[in-house]
Amino acid sequence: MKSESTPRRAHHDITIAGTRLAPDRSGALWWASERTLVVADMHLEKGSSYARRNVLLPPYDSRATLDKLAAVCERYNPGRVVALGDSFHDVSAPARLDAQSAALLKHLTARHDFIWIVGNHDPERPDVFGGTAISEMQIGPLTLRHIPGGPGFELAGHLHPCASVTVRGRRMRRRCFIADGLRCVLPAFGAYTGGLDVFDDAFGGLFAQGASTWLIGTEAVHRLALHRLARGAA
Q: CATH classification of 14-228, choosing from 2.40.50, 3.40.1710, 3.90.226, 3.60.21?
């Protein structure tokens, strides 16, 4: 009998270059053979960034995002965590983290080998929180980077993929992974991050006709081919 702490596996793994990757319902990707957890686009302190422009949102997005990251780290106990860029919403965001959130982040970077891939929102290394910042990294056959579309097999973020599906006459929109045999683009992990529909032109040319999506449901991740998704406005 499995313990309550055992992660519930997705219905279908993602396979790229013979590498099996498990999409988690949190939005993280688990690479079991490398004991590596991958997340994308946390956009920490997005709420406070909007507040400075008089767009008032509840200021709890960073803590919610980091609590979710801590929970998924607790489930998988990774040796390494890779954040695929745009971990912070802007270059001054690290200084705006509240003390509890900052302490939790420092705990995570001390407990795991933490790799920061730099993104377009956070091109500078957040030195105060530990870990290692690089532009991209190679693990086995896969390159981990922020913006998809580079050479070789890759894991990337940046586009915040989401997809819509109609079930029993009800239209639902969900964050998703999208992948084919060449690359996988992860959903945004941040609490306040929006999503870009996988049929948007930004995804054009990145994926072959055989691409699939892995939609994040309440209890599991569900694989759906592109032709099973709903197009157009809800």
A: 3.60.21
